[in-house]
Amino acid sequence: MTLTAAIMTHARRREHAERLAVLCSDLAPTVVEDPGVGSTLVTSAMAWATAEGASHHIVLQDDVLPVEGLTAHVVGLVARAPDAALSLFTEWGCRTAARVRIAALAGEATAPVVDPYVPSLALVLPTPVALAFAEHARGLDPATPDDVALRAFLNSQGVRQLVSVPDLVEHDTDGSTLSLTGNAFQGVRRSVCFGPLPRETANPSSESAPRLAHIGWMRAAAEVFDDGPEAPPTFVGTPLAQALPEQVEPALPAERFEETLTRVEREHGPELTRVLHRTVLFELWTAWYANGLGSGLDERHLERDRLDPVAEAALGTVLPGVFRRFVPVETLETVREHAVTFVLDALRYGVAEPDRIRGEWLAG
C-alpha cells in the first residue's frame, strides 16, 4: 500500500494549509487552492484529481490537526479495509458519532458512516475511486457540498464508507478559524474521539444495525433513524417516543431514568442536573437506552472500570456533541465523568432487555 496526499484550502487560509503541510511533510502533500469559485466541490474535485502513482489518496482540509505519526496510522487502517472510503474524522454530534461510540465500546477499529454525507475533513480513497470521483464531480452543480456528493457517488459505486475509531485528526481545536461555508451556526464541531492512539489490536467493524437512536444538536430531541442500505438519506428521524417497542411499559423508561440520575449523583455529585435540565437529559437517556437494544453490546462492554482510553474518550464527548449550541462547551466538560456513567447506565438497561423486546426494536 502506498499513499499520496493533498490539502484543500482557500486563498484566505493558505497559511493554514502550509502549516498543515509541514506537519504532514512525510506525505509531501500537494496544496490545492480554491480557484476563486467558492465551491467546496470544485476544490475537492481538484484535490482528488491529484491522486497518481499510489494505491490510495488522502485529502485533508486545511483546518485539521493530525495525530502524531499520522501516516503510519493511516497505513494500518487502510490495511484493514483497502477497498473502503475511510474518514479520519467525524464530528461529535452527528449520527455517525453515535456509531463510533458503540464501536469504541465493542473494541472495533472502524465504524460505518450513516449520515447523509461522508465526513470529508480527512478522507482516504483508493486511487481509482478518487480519480473517478474527481471526474464525476465536474459534472455536478458546484453548489453541491462535497461531502454530500461523495456519499451519493460512493453509494452508487458500492464503496463501503467507514470512519476510524479513534479519529486520527482533530478539527480547529482552538476555535480561531472561521468557517468559510456558513457552518458557524452549528457550534463547535470537534472530534467524537481524538487523543488516544489506535488500539494495537482491534476487532473489525461490525455491520451497522438497521436502526439507530440519536439526539441531534439541532432539536435536542431523541429520534430513531432507519440505517438500512435502502433507507433514503435524511437529517430528520421519527420521534423515539413513537418508536419504542410496544412491550416496553410507558412508565418504565422514566423510572429507570430516575434510577440512573440517582446512581450518577451518588458516584459523581449533583452537577449534571444543574448543568442540563431533566427534560433534555431524559431525551438523551432514552436514545442510549434504545441503542442498547440494538447495539449488539453486552454487560462486559459496559463496565465503567474496564473502559479503555478510546471508549472513555468517545463517551466523554456525548454532551458537547448534543448541547454545544445551548450550553458552553467548557461547562459541559465539567460533567464529562457524569456523562460517561449516565450513558453506560442507559445502555445497560437496553442491553438487559429480553430478546423479544430487542428483536421488536430491530424489526422496526
Description:
- The protein is α/β, with parallel strands linked by helices.
- Helices cover 40% and strands 14% of the residues.
- It has 14 helices and twelve strands.
- The strands form three sheets. A seven-stranded mixed sheet has the order 2-1-3-7-5-8-6, sandwiched between helices. A three-stranded antiparallel sheet has the order 10-11-12.
- The longest helix has 17 residues, at 252-268.
Q: What layout of secondary structure does this protein have?
A:
Elements: E1 3-9, H1 14-23, E2 30-33, H2 40-48, E3 56-61, E4 64-66, H3 70-80, E5 85-87, H4 95-106, E6 110-112, E7 122-126, H5 127-137, H6 146-156, E8 161-164, E9 169-171, E10 211-215, E11 222-226, E12 238-239, H7 252-268, H8 271-275, H9 278-294, H10 309-315, H11 318-323, H12 329-333, H13 336-351, H14 355-363
Parallel strand pairs: 1-2, 1-3, 5-8
Antiparallel strand pairs: 3-7, 4-9, 5-7, 6-8, 10-11, 11-12
Count of alpha/pi helices: 14
Strand content: 5-15%
Order of helices and strands: EHEHEEHEHEEHHEEEEEHHHHHHHH
Quote the distance from N terminus to C terminus: 41 Å
Spatial strand arrangement across the major sheet: 2-1-3-7-5-8-6
Features:
364 residues, alpha/beta, 7-stranded mixed β-sheet, 3-stranded antiparallel β-sheet, 40% helix, globular
